Amino acid sequence: MPNILFILAEDQGAHLSYLGTPGLQTPNLDRLARSGIYFENAFVGYPVCSASKAAIYTGLHNHTNGILNNTHNFHKPASAVTNAERGLRLAQTNRINDRFVTLTELLDANGYYQGVTHKLHVLPNEKFPYDEFHRTDTAQMDDFLRRASELQRPFFLMVNIPYSHRPYPNSDKEPIRVQPSKVEIPEFLPDTPEVRKDWAEYLAGIEKMDAVAGTALQKLKASGHADDTIVIYMSDHGPTFQHGKMTLYDLGLRTPFVVAGPGIPAGQRCDELISGMDIMPTLEDWIESRCDCEMKLPADSIAAKSGRSLDEYLQSLDGKSFAELLANPDAEGGHEYIVNEISNRGPLPNDGIQERSVFDGRWKLIYRENVEQAWRQVNADTREKKPWGNRTYGETLRVKDKFPRQYEILAEMDPQNLQGTVRRLELYDLHNDPDEMRDLSGSPKYANERSRLIEALKDWKEQTADESIRLSTFP
Hints:
The protein is of the alpha/beta class and 475 residues long. It has helices at 27-34, 49-58, 62-65, 83-86, 89-93, 103-109, 141-150, 193-222, 250-253, 279-291, 302-305, 310-315, 323-327, 380-383, 392-398, 404-413, 415-418, 447-464, and strands at residues 3-9, 37-43, 113-117, 132-134, 155-161, 229-235, 257-260, 268-275, 338-343, 354-359, 363-369, 425-429. It is built from 18 helices and twelve strands. Residues 2-287 form the Sulfatase N-terminal domain. GO terms for molecular function: arylsulfatase activity.
């Protein structure tokens, strides 16, 4: 069976020097992208850490898998979780439902030796039977690879890299290579020296992450396993700026995504729509094709006990295999639509604002219910200067008269503190408006696009049994 190295960056948007991001240098990830396939239209399922990971691990949307918003991080084996930790309210309510199989459980049932670095950040721990939990990024990687070889077991190693997560490198205290004058500020942020400094520090965090990814890839090569290992690199969601983390805009949802390894053509780009939820079914397809074997469900899983086969179970997921694209990136094997969700008050059911988006590769519709609540989940690092180093939130407040549109975007993101008006419906043409600044939902000229995406969202609601939205009336 092929080995798997999964490099997961935290809070990184689709920003690489490989993609031409001004001011940024990412030589290691650029090299990885050139050695395999870069997926230009890859998205996470839910734009915050725990929920995004839950969607990746289960192949299911979060209203189904059970984790909505962040949960506790018990980075240790299930046997080490205390009764006090298990009794915490969030540990009981914001967790993956027992009836679903995680990628970790699936690989464990099929003989993989598994490790995870830095943090787990999903629950319950019983559904993540890793053999090793590493506190550091790559320091223990050599020993992990050696043990897997000694045991003659294929390995799965998830390397979580935190450096593109706030707090970024503080350029007031340490020099960074990225120059604020060389960066390009998205249109939804005020273009001031302070925001440029913040964006430059974000890019510096990506460069630090790139160095760690490079170390992981070097260690893989030194182990002699580079030729029998599939490497996946992506992020859990976008960065902590307006239109980023915990929003359904492109900065929050679009992720860099590379797959490289044996049998995967090098130097290719694919523009098919794919999701992090596609990883589990894709790996099952790819593993079986490489080893001429048949994988099985965990024997103690509810799915297996009910008599379902692994193929039947995978067909029931929201994610779909894109293994065909790994053999031929010009094939048609992606999604027709990418649908995303946010439940602002977390575990369902709740009376908070529900947000959904549907995207077809060009047109995006964002739909919300319960907007009269005027309360949205704003993570501390999206707002606070201390300890998170966020310069942009306060700066947008300071220059709101000079940049009224950018302030309006901030106020809509944080309505409970800034009295912003949360819109029920938005429509964007990302080909002509990649920063999603011009809402076309009220224009008769684009009524057909609006209606088409609303119907696609209705179909998705039925297919995924999303009972937390009504989709009954539209503005």
